[in-house]
TrEMBL record:
InterPro entries found in the cross-reference section: CodB, Pur-cyt_permease, Pur-cyt_permease_Fcy2/21/22
Family: Belongs to the purine-cytosine permease (2.A.39) family.
Subcellular location: Membrane
Transmembrane feature ranges: 64-92, 112-139, 159-177, 189-209, 221-242, 262-285, 305-332, 344-366, 372-394, 415-435, 447-463
Alphabetical UniProt keywords: Membrane, Transmembrane, Transmembrane helix, Transport
PANTHER family: CYTOSINE PERMEASE, CYTOSINE TRANSPORTER CODB
A Pfam entry, by short name: Transp_cyt_pur
Protein name (database record): NCS1 nucleoside transporter family
Membrane topology type: Multi-pass membrane protein
Length: 467
Protein backbone atom coordinates (compact mmCIF):
# COMPACT_ATOMS: atom_id res chain seq x y z
CA UNK A 1 0.00 0.00 0.00
CA UNK A 2 1.57 3.26 -1.14
CA UNK A 3 1.66 6.54 0.41
CA UNK A 4 1.18 8.24 3.65
CA UNK A 5 -1.03 5.86 5.54
CA UNK A 6 1.21 2.85 5.05
CA UNK A 7 4.24 4.84 6.13
CA UNK A 8 2.43 6.21 9.17
CA UNK A 9 1.18 2.75 10.17
CA UNK A 10 4.75 1.45 10.15
CA UNK A 11 5.94 4.26 12.40
CA UNK A 12 3.02 3.95 14.78
CA UNK A 13 4.20 0.47 15.58
CA UNK A 14 7.87 1.46 15.68
CA UNK A 15 7.98 4.60 17.76
CA UNK A 16 4.92 6.56 18.81
CA UNK A 17 6.29 9.10 21.28
CA UNK A 18 5.03 12.51 22.31
CA UNK A 19 8.48 13.28 23.75
CA UNK A 20 10.42 12.71 20.56
CA UNK A 21 11.53 15.60 18.35
CA UNK A 22 11.17 14.25 14.81
CA UNK A 23 13.71 15.01 12.09
CA UNK A 24 12.64 16.62 8.82
CA UNK A 25 11.84 13.48 6.81
CA UNK A 26 10.45 11.42 9.68
CA UNK A 27 6.68 11.16 9.51
CA UNK A 28 4.96 11.89 12.83
CA UNK A 29 2.40 9.12 13.46
CA UNK A 30 -1.25 10.15 13.63
CA UNK A 31 -1.73 8.06 16.77
CA UNK A 32 0.37 8.48 19.89
CA UNK A 33 2.78 11.24 18.88
CA UNK A 34 0.59 14.23 17.98
CA UNK A 35 -0.09 16.56 20.89
CA UNK A 36 -0.88 20.00 19.41
CA UNK A 37 -4.53 20.95 19.46
CA UNK A 38 -6.62 23.77 17.99
CA UNK A 39 -5.90 26.24 20.84
CA UNK A 40 -2.19 25.40 20.77
CA UNK A 41 -2.02 26.32 17.09
CA UNK A 42 -3.97 29.54 17.58
CA UNK A 43 -1.63 30.50 20.45
CA UNK A 44 1.47 29.57 18.44
CA UNK A 45 0.55 31.74 15.48
CA UNK A 46 -0.73 34.66 17.54
CA UNK A 47 2.62 34.56 19.37
CA UNK A 48 4.52 34.27 16.09
CA UNK A 49 2.81 37.33 14.60
CA UNK A 50 1.97 39.61 17.53
CA UNK A 51 5.49 40.76 18.17
CA UNK A 52 8.00 43.52 17.64
CA UNK A 53 8.73 42.49 14.03
CA UNK A 54 5.07 42.92 13.10
CA UNK A 55 4.98 46.29 14.87
CA UNK A 56 8.10 47.31 12.96
CA UNK A 57 6.72 46.27 9.56
CA UNK A 58 3.53 48.17 10.45
CA UNK A 59 5.69 51.22 11.06
CA UNK A 60 7.46 50.75 7.73
CA UNK A 61 4.21 50.52 5.69
CA UNK A 62 2.91 53.59 7.55
CA UNK A 63 4.79 55.40 4.81
CA UNK A 64 1.77 54.59 2.62
CA UNK A 65 -0.35 56.71 5.05
CA UNK A 66 -3.01 55.20 7.29
CA UNK A 67 -5.43 54.18 4.52
CA UNK A 68 -2.78 52.58 2.34
CA UNK A 69 -1.12 50.80 5.26
CA UNK A 70 -4.39 49.33 6.52
CA UNK A 71 -5.48 48.33 3.01
CA UNK A 72 -2.27 46.44 2.22
CA UNK A 73 -2.45 44.74 5.64
CA UNK A 74 -6.04 43.59 5.02
CA UNK A 75 -5.27 42.39 1.49
CA UNK A 76 -1.74 40.97 1.49
CA UNK A 77 -1.77 38.97 4.71
CA UNK A 78 -4.95 36.85 4.41
CA UNK A 79 -3.73 35.71 0.99
CA UNK A 80 -0.38 34.68 2.47
CA UNK A 81 -2.07 32.82 5.31
CA UNK A 82 -4.34 30.97 2.87
CA UNK A 83 -1.17 29.58 1.28
CA UNK A 84 0.07 28.82 4.79
CA UNK A 85 -3.07 26.77 5.48
CA UNK A 86 -2.52 24.79 2.27
CA UNK A 87 1.05 23.93 3.23
CA UNK A 88 -0.15 23.29 6.80
CA UNK A 89 -2.52 20.66 5.42
CA UNK A 90 0.37 19.09 3.52
CA UNK A 91 2.33 18.80 6.77
CA UNK A 92 -0.68 17.37 8.62
CA UNK A 93 -1.26 14.75 5.93
CA UNK A 94 2.36 13.68 5.40
CA UNK A 95 3.61 14.24 8.96
CA UNK A 96 6.95 15.63 7.77
CA UNK A 97 8.57 19.06 7.90
CA UNK A 98 7.97 21.75 5.29
CA UNK A 99 11.36 21.25 3.65
CA UNK A 100 10.83 17.49 3.42
CA UNK A 101 7.65 18.36 1.51
CA UNK A 102 9.78 20.00 -1.19
CA UNK A 103 11.33 16.62 -2.05
CA UNK A 104 8.51 15.42 -4.34
CA UNK A 105 8.50 18.71 -6.28
CA UNK A 106 12.24 19.57 -6.32
CA UNK A 107 13.74 16.09 -5.96
CA UNK A 108 15.47 14.59 -2.96
CA UNK A 109 18.74 16.40 -3.61
CA UNK A 110 17.01 19.33 -5.28
CA UNK A 111 15.18 20.01 -2.00
CA UNK A 112 18.52 20.99 -0.48
CA UNK A 113 18.34 24.28 -2.44
CA UNK A 114 15.07 25.56 -0.91
CA UNK A 115 16.22 24.14 2.44
CA UNK A 116 19.36 26.28 2.40
CA UNK A 117 17.22 29.30 1.51
CA UNK A 118 14.85 28.42 4.34
CA UNK A 119 17.59 28.05 6.93
CA UNK A 120 19.10 31.41 6.01
CA UNK A 121 15.62 32.94 6.03
CA UNK A 122 14.79 31.84 9.56
CA UNK A 123 18.22 32.70 10.86
CA UNK A 124 17.61 36.14 9.33
CA UNK A 125 14.16 36.48 10.93
CA UNK A 126 15.60 35.50 14.30
CA UNK A 127 18.33 38.11 13.93
CA UNK A 128 15.77 40.79 12.95
CA UNK A 129 13.54 40.09 15.96
CA UNK A 130 16.51 39.78 18.30
CA UNK A 131 17.93 43.11 17.16
CA UNK A 132 14.58 44.86 17.67
CA UNK A 133 14.22 43.31 21.13
CA UNK A 134 17.81 44.31 21.95
CA UNK A 135 16.77 47.90 21.25
CA UNK A 136 14.17 47.51 24.02
CA UNK A 137 16.84 46.16 26.35
CA UNK A 138 19.02 49.18 25.52
CA UNK A 139 16.21 51.53 26.62
CA UNK A 140 15.79 49.50 29.83
CA UNK A 141 19.53 49.78 30.47
CA UNK A 142 19.30 53.53 29.93
CA UNK A 143 16.54 53.84 32.54
CA UNK A 144 18.34 51.56 35.01
CA UNK A 145 22.01 52.50 34.57
CA UNK A 146 22.04 55.59 32.37
CA UNK A 147 23.70 53.79 29.45
CA UNK A 148 23.11 55.31 25.99
CA UNK A 149 20.09 53.74 24.24
CA UNK A 150 19.94 52.70 20.60
CA UNK A 151 20.37 55.68 18.27
CA UNK A 152 22.49 57.61 20.75
CA UNK A 153 26.26 57.97 20.70
CA UNK A 154 27.98 55.12 22.51
CA UNK A 155 24.96 52.77 22.39
CA UNK A 156 26.94 49.81 21.04
CA UNK A 157 27.61 48.50 24.56
CA UNK A 158 23.90 48.51 25.42
CA UNK A 159 23.01 46.77 22.15
CA UNK A 160 25.65 44.06 22.64
CA UNK A 161 24.35 43.34 26.15
CA UNK A 162 20.79 43.33 24.80
CA UNK A 163 21.66 40.84 22.06
CA UNK A 164 23.37 38.54 24.57
CA UNK A 165 20.38 38.67 26.95
CA UNK A 166 17.98 37.86 24.11
CA UNK A 167 20.22 35.04 22.93
CA UNK A 168 20.05 33.37 26.34
CA UNK A 169 16.24 33.65 26.29
CA UNK A 170 16.14 32.08 22.82
CA UNK A 171 18.29 29.15 23.90
CA UNK A 172 15.88 28.54 26.78
CA UNK A 173 12.88 28.79 24.45
CA UNK A 174 14.05 25.92 22.23
CA UNK A 175 15.60 23.80 24.99
CA UNK A 176 12.84 21.16 24.79
CA UNK A 177 11.95 21.48 21.12
CA UNK A 178 8.29 21.92 20.19
CA UNK A 179 7.25 21.14 23.79
CA UNK A 180 8.91 24.28 25.20
CA UNK A 181 7.62 26.30 22.23
CA UNK A 182 4.08 25.17 23.11
CA UNK A 183 4.40 26.47 26.69
CA UNK A 184 6.07 29.74 25.68
CA UNK A 185 3.42 30.53 23.07
CA UNK A 186 0.57 30.04 25.57
CA UNK A 187 2.17 32.41 28.07
CA UNK A 188 3.15 34.85 25.33
CA UNK A 189 -0.40 35.02 23.96
CA UNK A 190 -1.65 36.39 27.30
CA UNK A 191 1.12 39.01 27.54
CA UNK A 192 0.60 40.02 23.93
CA UNK A 193 -3.11 40.58 24.54
CA UNK A 194 -2.41 42.83 27.53
CA UNK A 195 0.26 44.84 25.69
CA UNK A 196 -1.76 45.20 22.49
CA UNK A 197 -4.84 46.58 24.27
CA UNK A 198 -2.81 48.88 26.49
CA UNK A 199 -0.66 50.33 23.72
CA UNK A 200 -3.65 50.89 21.44
CA UNK A 201 -5.40 52.86 24.21
CA UNK A 202 -2.29 54.89 25.07
CA UNK A 203 -1.62 55.83 21.44
CA UNK A 204 -5.20 56.98 20.89
CA UNK A 205 -5.10 58.96 24.14
CA UNK A 206 -2.05 60.88 22.87
CA UNK A 207 -3.17 61.38 19.28
CA UNK A 208 -6.74 61.36 17.98
CA UNK A 209 -7.86 58.92 15.31
CA UNK A 210 -8.91 61.92 13.19
CA UNK A 211 -5.33 63.20 13.18
CA UNK A 212 -4.01 59.75 12.29
CA UNK A 213 -6.47 59.39 9.40
CA UNK A 214 -5.52 62.81 8.00
CA UNK A 215 -1.74 62.36 8.28
CA UNK A 216 0.42 61.87 5.19
CA UNK A 217 4.22 61.62 5.03
CA UNK A 218 6.34 63.93 2.93
CA UNK A 219 6.55 62.88 -0.70
CA UNK A 220 10.20 61.89 -0.27
CA UNK A 221 9.28 59.46 2.53
CA UNK A 222 6.02 58.10 1.10
CA UNK A 223 5.79 54.40 0.26
CA UNK A 224 4.07 53.30 -2.98
CA UNK A 225 1.11 50.97 -2.35
CA UNK A 226 2.55 48.13 -4.43
CA UNK A 227 5.82 48.31 -2.49
CA UNK A 228 3.84 48.19 0.76
CA UNK A 229 2.00 45.12 -0.60
CA UNK A 230 5.31 43.39 -1.36
CA UNK A 231 6.62 44.28 2.10
CA UNK A 232 3.59 42.82 3.88
CA UNK A 233 3.39 39.79 1.57
CA UNK A 234 7.04 38.90 2.13
CA UNK A 235 6.65 39.35 5.88
CA UNK A 236 3.74 36.89 6.07
CA UNK A 237 4.97 34.44 3.44
CA UNK A 238 8.09 34.08 5.55
CA UNK A 239 6.08 31.99 8.03
CA UNK A 240 4.96 29.40 5.49
CA UNK A 241 8.18 27.34 5.54
CA UNK A 242 7.66 26.96 9.31
CA UNK A 243 4.06 25.77 9.28
CA UNK A 244 4.51 22.02 8.75
CA UNK A 245 7.03 21.89 11.61
CA UNK A 246 3.95 22.33 13.82
CA UNK A 247 1.01 20.96 11.83
CA UNK A 248 2.79 17.59 11.62
CA UNK A 249 2.08 17.36 15.36
CA UNK A 250 -1.62 18.30 15.10
CA UNK A 251 -4.40 15.83 15.82
CA UNK A 252 -7.06 17.21 13.49
CA UNK A 253 -7.16 18.79 10.04
CA UNK A 254 -8.81 21.97 11.34
CA UNK A 255 -5.94 22.42 13.81
CA UNK A 256 -3.52 22.35 10.87
CA UNK A 257 -5.44 24.72 8.60
CA UNK A 258 -8.12 26.86 10.26
CA UNK A 259 -6.35 27.44 13.59
CA UNK A 260 -3.09 28.81 12.10
CA UNK A 261 -5.06 31.17 9.83
CA UNK A 262 -7.07 32.48 12.79
CA UNK A 263 -4.02 32.94 15.03
CA UNK A 264 -1.78 34.45 12.34
CA UNK A 265 -4.39 36.93 11.13
CA UNK A 266 -5.34 38.05 14.65
CA UNK A 267 -1.71 38.47 15.70
CA UNK A 268 -0.66 40.28 12.55
CA UNK A 269 -3.68 42.57 12.15
CA UNK A 270 -3.47 43.60 15.77
CA UNK A 271 0.22 44.40 16.01
CA UNK A 272 0.55 45.82 12.51
CA UNK A 273 -2.32 48.16 13.45
CA UNK A 274 -0.52 49.10 16.66
CA UNK A 275 2.70 49.69 14.68
CA UNK A 276 0.89 51.80 12.10
CA UNK A 277 -0.95 54.08 14.54
CA UNK A 278 2.00 54.26 16.96
CA UNK A 279 4.42 55.31 14.23
CA UNK A 280 1.99 57.86 12.78
CA UNK A 281 1.14 59.06 16.28
CA UNK A 282 4.82 59.57 17.10
CA UNK A 283 5.30 61.41 13.79
CA UNK A 284 2.41 63.75 14.61
CA UNK A 285 3.61 64.31 18.19
CA UNK A 286 7.24 64.97 17.21
CA UNK A 287 6.61 66.63 13.86
CA UNK A 288 8.96 64.25 12.03
CA UNK A 289 8.45 60.88 10.37
CA UNK A 290 11.51 58.65 10.18
CA UNK A 291 10.98 54.99 9.18
CA UNK A 292 14.43 54.23 10.60
CA UNK A 293 12.99 54.90 14.07
CA UNK A 294 9.73 52.95 13.69
CA UNK A 295 10.95 50.14 15.92
CA UNK A 296 8.67 49.48 18.94
CA UNK A 297 11.14 50.63 21.56
CA UNK A 298 11.82 54.03 20.00
CA UNK A 299 8.09 54.62 19.51
CA UNK A 300 7.23 53.36 23.02
CA UNK A 301 9.82 55.73 24.44
CA UNK A 302 8.48 58.70 22.45
CA UNK A 303 4.92 57.96 23.57
CA UNK A 304 5.91 57.39 27.21
CA UNK A 305 4.68 53.80 27.42
CA UNK A 306 7.28 52.97 30.08
CA UNK A 307 9.44 49.99 31.02
CA UNK A 308 6.58 47.48 31.15
CA UNK A 309 6.04 47.87 27.41
CA UNK A 310 9.75 47.33 26.80
CA UNK A 311 9.75 44.12 28.84
CA UNK A 312 6.72 42.75 26.98
CA UNK A 313 8.39 43.60 23.67
CA UNK A 314 11.30 41.42 24.80
CA UNK A 315 8.94 38.57 25.69
CA UNK A 316 7.06 38.73 22.39
CA UNK A 317 10.38 38.56 20.54
CA UNK A 318 11.06 35.28 22.33
CA UNK A 319 7.68 33.83 21.29
CA UNK A 320 8.26 34.73 17.64
CA UNK A 321 11.82 33.47 17.56
CA UNK A 322 10.87 30.16 19.16
CA UNK A 323 8.96 29.44 15.93
CA UNK A 324 11.80 30.77 13.73
CA UNK A 325 14.42 28.66 15.45
CA UNK A 326 12.25 25.56 15.44
CA UNK A 327 11.72 25.87 11.68
CA UNK A 328 15.33 26.66 10.88
CA UNK A 329 16.70 23.86 13.04
CA UNK A 330 14.41 21.12 11.72
CA UNK A 331 15.09 22.32 8.16
CA UNK A 332 18.79 21.69 8.76
CA UNK A 333 18.04 17.99 9.35
CA UNK A 334 16.65 17.78 5.80
CA UNK A 335 20.19 18.17 4.41
CA UNK A 336 22.28 16.92 7.36
CA UNK A 337 20.78 13.61 8.42
CA UNK A 338 23.50 12.87 10.95
CA UNK A 339 22.66 16.02 12.91
CA UNK A 340 20.06 15.30 15.59
CA UNK A 341 17.04 17.65 15.74
CA UNK A 342 17.96 19.23 19.08
CA UNK A 343 21.58 19.74 18.00
CA UNK A 344 20.30 21.40 14.82
CA UNK A 345 18.19 23.82 16.89
CA UNK A 346 21.26 24.87 18.87
CA UNK A 347 23.37 25.29 15.73
CA UNK A 348 20.78 27.55 14.09
CA UNK A 349 20.37 29.57 17.28
CA UNK A 350 24.11 30.21 17.56
CA UNK A 351 24.32 31.26 13.89
CA UNK A 352 21.42 33.66 14.42
CA UNK A 353 23.21 35.19 17.41
CA UNK A 354 26.25 35.95 15.25
CA UNK A 355 24.12 37.44 12.46
CA UNK A 356 22.33 39.76 14.90
CA UNK A 357 25.54 41.73 15.41
CA UNK A 358 25.82 42.62 11.70
CA UNK A 359 23.52 45.73 11.68
CA UNK A 360 25.56 47.21 14.54
CA UNK A 361 28.58 47.57 12.32
CA UNK A 362 27.32 47.59 8.72
CA UNK A 363 24.69 50.04 7.41
CA UNK A 364 21.27 50.98 8.76
CA UNK A 365 18.88 48.45 10.24
CA UNK A 366 15.99 49.66 8.06
CA UNK A 367 17.97 49.17 4.85
CA UNK A 368 18.97 45.67 5.98
CA UNK A 369 15.35 44.86 6.89
CA UNK A 370 13.91 46.00 3.53
CA UNK A 371 16.62 44.16 1.58
CA UNK A 372 15.88 41.03 3.61
CA UNK A 373 12.14 41.26 2.86
CA UNK A 374 12.86 41.68 -0.86
CA UNK A 375 14.98 38.53 -0.70
CA UNK A 376 12.16 36.63 1.07
CA UNK A 377 9.56 37.64 -1.52
CA UNK A 378 11.90 36.87 -4.40
CA UNK A 379 12.85 33.32 -3.39
CA UNK A 380 9.93 32.08 -1.29
CA UNK A 381 7.08 33.22 -3.53
CA UNK A 382 7.96 31.00 -6.54
CA UNK A 383 8.91 28.10 -4.24
CA UNK A 384 5.52 28.19 -2.49
CA UNK A 385 3.69 28.36 -5.81
CA UNK A 386 5.55 25.24 -7.01
CA UNK A 387 4.99 23.29 -3.76
CA UNK A 388 1.26 23.92 -3.60
CA UNK A 389 0.75 23.20 -7.30
CA UNK A 390 2.71 19.95 -7.10
CA UNK A 391 0.76 18.59 -4.13
CA UNK A 392 -2.78 19.71 -4.93
CA UNK A 393 -2.86 19.73 -8.75
CA UNK A 394 -0.08 17.47 -10.03
CA UNK A 395 -0.04 14.74 -7.31
CA UNK A 396 -3.72 15.07 -6.37
CA UNK A 397 -2.95 15.39 -2.62
CA UNK A 398 -1.05 12.10 -2.40
CA UNK A 399 2.63 11.83 -1.48
CA UNK A 400 4.52 8.58 -0.84
CA UNK A 401 6.37 9.53 2.32
CA UNK A 402 8.40 6.32 2.30
CA UNK A 403 9.94 7.47 -1.01
CA UNK A 404 11.12 10.78 0.49
CA UNK A 405 14.46 9.15 1.37
CA UNK A 406 14.75 6.48 -1.35
CA UNK A 407 17.68 6.86 -3.71
CA UNK A 408 16.52 5.96 -7.25
CA UNK A 409 12.91 6.07 -6.01
CA UNK A 410 10.02 8.02 -7.51
CA UNK A 411 11.32 11.37 -6.18
CA UNK A 412 14.91 10.82 -7.31
CA UNK A 413 14.31 12.10 -10.87
CA UNK A 414 17.68 12.97 -12.50
CA UNK A 415 20.44 12.24 -9.99
CA UNK A 416 18.17 13.52 -7.21
CA UNK A 417 17.14 16.75 -8.96
CA UNK A 418 13.76 17.60 -10.51
CA UNK A 419 15.00 20.13 -13.03
CA UNK A 420 11.49 21.16 -14.11
CA UNK A 421 10.81 22.59 -10.65
CA UNK A 422 14.27 24.13 -10.30
CA UNK A 423 13.97 25.80 -13.73
CA UNK A 424 10.51 27.13 -12.81
CA UNK A 425 11.92 28.48 -9.55
CA UNK A 426 14.70 30.32 -11.40
CA UNK A 427 12.14 31.74 -13.87
CA UNK A 428 10.03 32.92 -10.91
CA UNK A 429 13.00 34.68 -9.31
CA UNK A 430 13.84 36.41 -12.61
CA UNK A 431 10.20 37.46 -13.03
CA UNK A 432 10.22 39.01 -9.56
CA UNK A 433 13.38 40.97 -10.32
CA UNK A 434 11.84 42.22 -13.58
CA UNK A 435 8.43 43.16 -12.15
CA UNK A 436 9.39 44.39 -8.69
CA UNK A 437 10.59 47.83 -9.80
CA UNK A 438 8.14 48.45 -12.64
CA UNK A 439 5.94 51.45 -11.88
CA UNK A 440 2.69 49.55 -12.51
CA UNK A 441 3.47 46.90 -9.89
CA UNK A 442 5.09 49.37 -7.46
CA UNK A 443 1.94 51.49 -7.47
CA UNK A 444 -0.72 48.76 -7.55
CA UNK A 445 -0.54 45.10 -6.48
CA UNK A 446 3.18 44.54 -6.06
CA UNK A 447 5.14 41.74 -7.70
CA UNK A 448 5.02 38.98 -5.07
CA UNK A 449 1.57 37.50 -5.67
CA UNK A 450 1.64 37.80 -9.49
CA UNK A 451 4.95 35.89 -9.44
CA UNK A 452 3.48 33.14 -7.23
CA UNK A 453 0.60 32.70 -9.68
CA UNK A 454 2.88 32.78 -12.74
CA UNK A 455 5.29 30.27 -11.18
CA UNK A 456 2.40 27.95 -10.32
CA UNK A 457 1.01 28.13 -13.87
CA UNK A 458 4.42 27.56 -15.47
CA UNK A 459 5.13 24.54 -13.27
CA UNK A 460 1.65 23.08 -13.86
CA UNK A 461 2.01 23.50 -17.63
CA UNK A 462 5.44 21.83 -17.66
CA UNK A 463 4.25 18.99 -15.42
CA UNK A 464 1.19 18.31 -17.62
CA UNK A 465 3.30 18.30 -20.76
CA UNK A 466 5.84 15.86 -19.28
CA UNK A 467 3.20 13.25 -18.41
Amino acid sequence: MSSILSNEDDQIVAEPSVKKEYAATESVPHNGARNLGFIDMIATWIGANANNGTWYVGGVVAGAAFGGAIACTLIANPIAYLFMALVGYMGYKAGTSTMALTRPSFGIRGSFLPTLVNITSFIGWTAVNTFIAAISVSFLLKESFGWPAFGQAGSTKSMVVGILIMSVLHLISISLGHHSVKVIERVGMILVAVLGIWETIVVLQNVSLTQILAWHPKASLSLPFGTAMDTMAAFSLGWIPAIAEFTRYTKKKTSATVAPMIGANIGLFWFAFVGIIATIGAAIASGTFDPNNSDPSSIASKLGLGWVALIVIVVTSTTANAVNLMAGGISLTNIAKKVKPMAALWIVTLLAILLTFVPLFFGSFLDSFIAFLDYIGMVLGPMIGIMVTDFFLVRKRSYDVAAFTQKNGKYWYTSGFHWQAILTWIIGIVLFLLLHNLDFFKNSIGATYPVIVLSALIYWAIAKRSK
